[in-house]
Amino acid sequence: QVQLVESGGGLVQPGGSLRLSCAASGTVFAIDAMGWYRQAPGSQRDLVATIHRNGTTAYGESVKGRFTISRDNAKNTVYLQMNSLKPEDTAVYYCNARTHDRVDYWGQGTQVTVSS
What we know:
By secondary structure, the chain is mainly beta. It contains no helices and 11 strands. It has strands at about 1-5, 10, 20-25, 30-40, 45-50, 55-60, 65-70, 75-80, 90-100, 105, 110-115. Strands 2, 4, 5, 6, 9, 10 and 11 form a 7-stranded mixed β-sheet that branches. It has a 4-stranded antiparallel β-sheet with strand order 1-3-8-7, with no helix packed on it. It is globular and about 40 Å long.
């Protein structure tokens, strides 16, 4: 089992920045990739960014050039630096961990609201 604890959400003005963190515990040796997904009211859960244990990253189209995902393997923690935030980035952001055998674990979610 893998447990994920997220932090760093909140309210920010358009153009501002936030950094999300997600700390993993439990059977962390089994994790291949970690990442972030988001879900706005009435919408499906969409990919924001993922990072493999080897450092390979992938981003959703709408966040490329604005968001950066990074990972500290020693701390079993993944970070999402979000810059130039837009109102359409408002959503609940969920941390994800995928294991070698392709089992997905999810955090409880953290709200990000971009509004003036």
